[in-house]
Amino acid sequence: MNLSLKIWRQKNANSEGKFQQYDVQGISEDMSFLEMFDVLNERLINEGDTPVAFDHDCREGICGMCSMYINGQPHGPGKNVTTCQLHMRSFKDGDTITVEPWRAKAFPIVKDLAVNRSAFDRIISAGGYVSVNTGNAQDANSLPIAKDNADDAFMAAACIGCGACVAACVNSSAMLFTSAKISQLALLPQGQAERAMRAEKMVAQMDTEGFGACSVTGACEAECPKGISLENIARMNREYYGAVLSSK
Amino acid sequence: MSWVTKTLSSSLGRKLIMAVTGISLILFLLVHCGINSMIFFNDGGETFNAAAEFMSGNWLIRTAEVGLMAGFIIHIADGLMLWKSNAEKRPVKYAIVKGEANSSWASRSMGILGSLLLIFLVIHLRHFWITSRFTDEITGGHTTLFAEMIETFANPIAVIIYVIGCISLAYHLSHGFQSSFQTMGWNHPKYTPFVKSVGLSFSILIPLIFAAMPISMYFGWIA
Ligand code: HEM
Ligand code: SF4
Ligand code: FES
Question: C or N: which end of chain B has fewer Cβ atoms within 10 Å?
Answer without folding.
Answer: N
